Amino acid sequence: MSTLRYQKRGNKYYVYEVHQYWDKILKKPRQKTKYLGTADGPGGEYKKMGRLQGEQKPEKAILDFGDSFAIHETAKNMGLADVIKDSFGDLSDSILQLACYQMTEGSAMQNCEDWNSGNFANKLFPEAHVKSQDISRLIKELGRQDVQQKFFKNYVAKFFPNETGLLIDSTSLPSAINTSINTFGYTSEGIQENISCLVLVDKVKKLPIYFRAFGGDIADNSTLKTTIEEIKRLGLTADSALLDAGYCSKENLQYMCEKSVDFVTRLPKSHAVFYQLVDGAVLTESLENAVKYGDRSVFIVSQKTNIYGNEMYAHIILDPNKKSKDVNNILKNCIENKQTDVKKAAINKKIKYGGYFILLSKSEIKPNEVLPTYYNRQSIEQIFGFAKSNNSLLPLRVHSEQSINGYLMLVFIALILFITMRQKLQPDITMDKALLRLRGLKAKIYEDGAIIQEPNKKVKEISKALKIIMPTTLGV
Q1: Hey, which of 9-18, 103-112, 131-140, 376-385 has the most confident mean pLDDT?
Q2: N or C: which end of the chain has fewer CB within 10 A?
């Protein structure tokens, strides 16, 4: 038997259905209650509350939300979205959506359309076109020199309006495509067909500034002058440069001195002046010359000198641990084998200079600041690591020089966003984990908008670090 019960709470009456029944185990009457809704008065009609009785329209889909929304908000908040809009016009939605895809998935572009159907990015970037043929046309368009120059001018003006300290390095991109810049050259895997990509990074902000693609057979040291002249045309003034040893040549040292660029670079042992500097230095293995860098202890002596007709500072460094390893590697294959006098001389030279390396700088640097200054260049090596692992830079799958430049431009934009977000999250969480956790935040799509589901504690922490606010509802 069932009856209705009205209970008043405040100004409302809450209606319950009460069902009476006999409990055979306890041998006594019992009752069950079920909430039905609210009424205006006792004994009156009631209306059932909640989604089933309300006006809300049925949901159409549930989409991944948090990852693409965080990238969208980062691009907007830092001003990059405006730079992209001013530079690329109607292509901006497609570019930002593909950047989201690169950062969150990093797989082949042909899979972007499938990813797009299950991600809220298709609502955030409604004008994006992500079919395979659309992406191919977009990448080709991004490879045009006039289009890239417009972007770099706007980007430099927005983010690097003053003189900038540069980190300069390049990486090889193995590729088997048939283009004029895909040539045989040295890579980490040996000699193979590859394209070289040079990247400039801001020494303070650690953001990429500019990139160039050139043939894998072109030596790094021959690209510096052209690159410096190109960035001048874009409105960027370099007051300092931190370069890998591959860029240290007589011509480049003279050029940077002529242009008053305050540089730091490593002098390769292929230069005869290397041995002259070591021989002429008074570097004793003493406490006075000892410098600690992390867990590493070295001996350093700095001196002002004239190299290739220009005054600069040479920092002669002896790493005792490296010397021990170098000497051991040299001797283990030589002691038991007979050597000619010429080979003996070469081996003795390697032993004598083992463990030594030299850094050159235009300005004076204190001994305890030499290594920290030079190893700032690790920032650019990390960027190459991010590009190759997180943004699918390898292998190159495009099939023309223009498309290569267009694809690198797309990766470049994704890198700006990736590094900006990573800097805000460090050191508590990696970008991989952050994007994975953000993806767990879903959005239910209705005809008149989207309802964002409740973020968990980890998503809230990531949002706080990124300085973004996750909404409750959004129009679509």
Answers
A1: 131-140
A2: N
Is residue 79 within 8 Å of 155, Cβ to Cβ?
Answer: no
Tokens standing for 474?
Answer: 């959004």
Q: 399 pLDDT band (50/70/90 cuts)?
A: low
Pairing of strands 449-452, 442-446: antiparallel
Q: Nearest to residue 171, comparing CAs of 380, 448, 379?
A: 380
- Give the span between the Cα atoms of 259 and 459, in whole angstroms: 49
Dist. CA 456–CA 438, nearest whole Å? 10
Two structure tokens written together for 67: 């990852």
* Nearest to 443, CA basis, from 55, 122, 104: 122
68-72 mean pLDDT: 97
Q: Give per-residue pLDDT as tens, 313-355.
A: 999 999 999 999 988 888 887 776 777 888 888 889 999 999 9
Contact call for residues 71 and 421 (beta carbons, < 8 A): yes
Q: What are phi and psi of 58, to 5 degrees?
A: -65, 145
Q: Supply 287's token pair.
A: 């406490």
Sign of the CA dihedral with 187 first, then 390, 127, and 85 last: negative
**Distance between CA atoms of 211 and 295, rounded to whole angstroms?**
34
Q: What are phi and psi of 29, to 5 degrees?
A: -70, 145
Best CA proximity match to 210, nearest among 437, 413, 388, 3: 413
* CB-CB contact of 442 with 414 (8 Å): no
d(CA 399, CA 407): 10
| Lookup: tokens for 265 | 């670079």
| Torsion on CA atoms 460, 466, 471, 476, rounded to nearest 10 | -130
Cβ 209 vs Cβ 231: under 8 Å: yes
Q: Using 50, 70 and 90 to split pLDDT, how confident is the model at 59? A: low
- DSSP-assigned states of every residue in 268-327: PTTSHHHHHHHHH----SSGGGEEEETTEEEEEEEEEEEETTEEEEEEEEE-HHHHHHHH
239 vs 218, which has greater pLDDT? Answer: 239
For position 151, what pLDDT does the model report?
97
Whether residue 83 is predicted with pLDDT greater than 60 in this model: the reply is yes
Question: Which tokens go with 23?
Answer: 């409990």
Please tell me whether residue 342 adopts helix, strand or coil conformation.
Answer: helix
